[in-house]
Amino acid sequence: STTYVTFMVFMGTSLADGAWSRESAVYRVSGVISVVGGWFFTALAAFTAAFILACIFYFGGPIAIGLVLVFVAVLIYRSHRYHGKRMDDQLAFEQGLDEGTMTNVQIVELAINNMTIILDGLKNSLDNILDALAAEDLPKLNKVNQKFKEIIKRAEKIKRKASKALDKISDDQIEAIHLYMLVADYLSEMTSHGNNIIKDSLDHVDNNHKPLVSAQIEELSFIQDKFKIRMDSTIEVFKNRDSGEAKRLQQDLQLFVKAIRTARKNQIKRIRDHEVGTRNSVLYLHLLGEYRNLSMFSDRLVKVLDELILDPVEDQPSIRA
Prior knowledge:
This protein has 321 residues and is mostly helical. The chain is built from 9 helices and no strands.
């Protein structure tokens, strides 16, 4: 076809001109494979499936037809059971905020529990993603990416439930729900930024771009270690309701941002000295930006705790346990 000829001419001329490099070759080849392979795969898959079923029905007769129907019924049943289990989990999760079943303190505890689960999952996923990125371990990157999708779903579920609970609260629960909603919103934002780190790392390795240099890995590992400490401290501040620790953690934000700024300056020097390529720089600078965004939202978590519970304004009732 015209599309096929165009792609092949494009590949041949660019290869002859010496325009191929590790940074661009993957896009040239994958474009052709995606288009041409898509045609053949779709046709082959449809033909194969139809041929297999036709043979089964022809040679097996009514018995084969019955067995196929039973197999399909089993698949439908398993899918329905899995969906039912998910719905039961969701109902159990949402039951805690039903009208009249939770006190202010219990609502805050639920927010802390949700935050602990999300932040623990986030920091562990980023740990694994940096290890896989350094080793260019594509299977591990895919595994972390799939597992993190569950964390994203949970964060979104928490956020949706917070909005649904608004019409079920009493006047004395407004501040507690306010805290719950803000925590849910910030957790959702943090999982979004964490997902950006995971997806960008996965795409970089999947497209066979040049790996990060050792200095970049060391800088990212240092920032990740600082980030984990910050997440652990945030969880402890919420659990212990420690006003002094909350203020210290807010002040330490600038130290974390300074570490990111230092890493960014080092990257600029590497670009100037032609030590790294364009794709490398795009990935690295984006990762630094996402870590900065994560730190900002973690700081907002601490601030909302400080303003609503630890040190509320005078006309606002405290819900501190």
